[in-house]
Amino acid sequence: MAHKVCLIRGDGTGPEIVSAVETIFNAAKVNIDWIEVEAGLKCVEAGKPIVPDETIAKIREIGVGLKAPMTTPIGKGSVSPNVTLRKKLELYACVRPVRSLPGVPTPFTNLDIVIFRENTEDPYAQIEYMSTEHVAQSVKIISDSGCERIIRAAFEYARKNGRKKVVGVHKANIMKIADGLFLKVFNQVRLEYPEIESWDNIVDNQCMQLVTKWNLYDVLVTLNLYGDIVSDLAAGMMGGLGVAPGANFGRECALFEAVHGSAPKYTGMNKVNPTALLLSGTLMLDHLGEHDARKNIEGALEATLRKGVKTYDLGGTATTSGFAEAVASELKG
Amino acid sequence: MMTLHGVDVYIRHPEIPDIPKEHGTFALIFISMRGTRVTLPLPPGTELVDWLQCRYFSETEVTDQQVDELVSTLTGLGWQWTKCQKLFMIDGVNAFSQPY
Question: Is the Cβ pair B90, A130 closer than 8 Å?
Answer without folding.
Answer: yes
